[in-house]
Design goal:
Helix content: 40-55%
Number of strands: 17
Structural class: alpha/beta
Strand content: 5-15%
Largest sheet: 9 strands, mixed
Radius of gyration: 27 Å
Length: 638
């Protein structure tokens, strides 16, 4: 072999390329682990075409993660000086390479495997708020790890593999004896590699384009965008990117004709007067849990919400209800203030400090006593602070329960707080002390990971097809006991009860729930003991519709702000549900569903091009209105 050809194969640059190639292999193994371990949540890859698209997209996002993680290592590896050949310098490079890749590539992506079933997303900077606000996050994390020892073992083996491959790949310095030529060649290599890395870290070679967004992963596979994405790029991108989109698609007059969050009240189909209002925000109550909503799914069994099913048959039930967020913290703004969360939770953005006329505040101005119940620790998940911002006057949490009721293994579980059964009984006591009319809401806890049922009820609820269904059945039984307790209270007959899930459960039984639309499909209905509201509504509804519908039902006659619609009194507003799933916007109407990535529709469901175009126009209008309002921090009717 000639000297020149030898230099081409054995030098600093080829050594660097081989070392980074090992990281690509490690990242690919992590991605395979992600898919096979979380396949019940991700769904099956349909065919070779989709698999190919996922591989192409993964290669691009893995490159972004690898280059961002290894930026310091690459820079130090290509410095055009002879001291990089020293043993101490190569040891320093190994430490940087091994530590950064062990943490960022292996541990962070391994954490995603564990975290994804809980939040249906990868870890981003948004999750830092969760850890700051929840003192019980450490035992939850440990519980996740103990239940996922497979990925822990895979991670440890890959960390060892990194070290082994480093020593297996022998270092060969650039063999150029002429000093001037040495520096000339290495300086050129330094700038060429730096330029390639900068382009790679931006994800584009066009200087006029912004660096690659997470939403662009959806063009390869909208359903499995989170599989295509990888950390640490998800964390890096969300730490410096805009928290919300500020796209402008229409001029102001055109936007107002298409959509506006400002409501002018003309008349009311129903006027129930100043009734008490009670909202049950039900943790992980997917539509799939109900036999009433899914008779074909539970032909030979009762389903897991038998009591709620009985209320649905006596109340006003929405058969196509959808969540506006994917996490619990996103449900409170949607329900209380009719404000959605898209790529970042509204409650976690600085823009949530603004001017509001939310449902609890409007009702308080109408003479209502307003309250919120949650059996978790005070301000867990930011519930207390955000609900008070919306006008809730008093919050009841675990502290109030423990001051009034005994604490033991059948009342308190170690991860989140008070079990639903005893907490709902405590809630019944407190509601009995309130002045009418009142507005109150409860966010239950037990129908959540780690899927624990108190020992005294283990024989009272079905085991289910998965652990989620067992705790859902327990919460359904807890609601039954609550109603049995209060059905002779003086406030009961004059109360409007609203039931809505916060989001879809991570664990899935019905294959339809694995679709993107199914991932938003929840239980939602209203119940009045006197039967004044009764019926089946097959139109598309969303959590955002609760506030305007309630205001219509009580005869509120002033202008107000809401991203939803009054389902009874605003026929000019078309039924629609909007959210952000897998980093793309989802817009569901009665006749079409579109997935939009800020620039174009990456996928559509529906045979009619006109209705598909209308859905795209609607999501554009909502995005633009949302961006304008967040920029102004103004959530009031002008």
């Amino acid at each position: 072999m000639s000297l020149n050809s030898k230099n081409l194969l054995r030098n600093d640059v080829t050594t660097l390329v081989l070392r980074l190639a090992v990281v690509y292999v490690v990242m690919f193994i992590m991605q395979l682990s992600f898919y096979f371990i979380d396949r019940p949540y991700l769904g099956h890859i349909a065919d070779w075409h989709e698999a190919k698209e996922i591989l192409i997209g993964s290669l691009q996002y893995n490159t972004l993660s690898i280059l961002w993680t290894n930026a310091l290592f690459i820079f130090l590896s290509i410095l055009p000086f002879h001291f990089r050949e020293k043993k101490w310098y190569q040891t320093l490079l190994f430490i940087i390479y091994w530590v950064t890749n062990s943490f960022a590539i292996i541990i962070l992506n391994g954490g995603d495997v564990v975290y994804y079933p809980h939040a249906m997303k990868r870890f981003t900077t948004e999750e830092l708020h969760f850890f700051n606000e929840n003192s019980n996050s450490s035992p939850i994390i440990m519980n996740f790890i103990m239940q996922n020892l497979t990925i822990l073992i895979i991670g440890l083996l890959l960390i060892v593999l990194l070290a082994y491959c480093w020593y297996y790949i022998k270092y060969f310095p650039t063999e150029i004896k002429d000093k001037k030529r040495y520096y000339r060649v290495n300086v050129i290599a330094f700038f060429c590699i730096s330029a390639i890395c900068i382009i790679g870290m931006r994800g584009t070679c066009n200087p006029n384009e912004s660096w690659k967004s997470l939403s662009q992963a959806a063009k390869y596979s909208p359903e499995r965008a989170w599989l295509i994405l990888s950390n640490p790029y998800c964390a890096v991108r969300t730490s410096v990117g805009d928290l919300f989109d500020k796209d402008v698609y229409f001029d102001k007059d055109e936007l107002y004709e298409i959509y506006t969050p400002e409501h002018q009240v003309d008349s009311s189909r129903y006027n129930l007067g100043h009734r008490n209002i009670m909202v049950f925000i039900l943790e992980s109550f997917s539509k799939e849990h109900s036999k009433y909503l899914n008779p074909e799914l539970y032909k030979n069994e009762a389903g897991f919400t038998p009591f709620l099913d009985s209320l649905m048959q006596q109340g006003y039930t929405f058969t196509h209800a959808y969540s506006n967020g994917m996490k619990s913290v996103e449900a409170i703004p949607s329900v209380f203030a009719s404000i959605p969360s898209f790529r970042t939770s509204f409650a976690l953005m600085p823009e949530h400090f603004g001017n509001f006329e939310a449902l609890p505040q409007i009702l308080a101005n109408q003479g209502y006593e307003t309250s919120f119940f949650s059996g978790a620790e005070r301000n867990s998940m930011n519930f207390e602070s955000i609900s008070k911002m919306f006008g809730v006057q008093k919050c009841y949490c675990r502290d109030e329960y423990e001051a009034a009721y005994p604490v033991n293994e059948n009342t308190i579980e170690p991860f989140w707080g008070v079990f639903d059964m005893p907490y709902f009984q405590f809630m019944a006591d407190e509601i009995g002390k309130m002045q009418q009319p009142f507005f109150t809401s409860v966010f239950n806890l037990t129908s959540h990971h780690p899927y624990r049922v108190p020992a005294d009820y283990t024989d009272s609820v079905p085991s289910g097809h998965n652990p989620e269904q067992r705790v859902v059945a327990y919460t359904d039984l807890s609601i039954r006991k609550f109603f049995e307790r209060v059905d002779d209270e003086p406030w009961y007959d004059s109360t409007l009860f609203i039931f809505v899930a916060d989001h879809v459960a991570p664990l899935v039984y019905d294959p339809q729930t694995l679709t993107m639309q199914g991932r938003s499909s929840i239980i939602g209905f209203m119940y009045t003991p006197d039967g004044s509201l009764k019926g089946i509504d097959d139109a598309t509804v969303q959590q955002l519709d609760i506030m305007p519908t309630v205001l219509g039902l009580i005869g509120y006659d002033k202008p107000y702000f809401a991203f939803g619609r009054d389902v009874f009194n605003e026929p000019e507003r078309k039924p629609v549900a909007v959210n952000c799933i897998n980093q793309v916007y989802q817009c569901i109407t009665d006749s079409a569903t579109v997935y939009f990535d800020n620039e174009r529709t990456v996928k559509s469901i529906g045979d009619n091009p006109q209705t598909t175009a209308e859905a795209e126009t609607m999501i554009k209008a909502v995005i633009q209105s949302y961006g304008e309002r967040l920029t102004a921090k103004d959530y009031t009717a002008k």
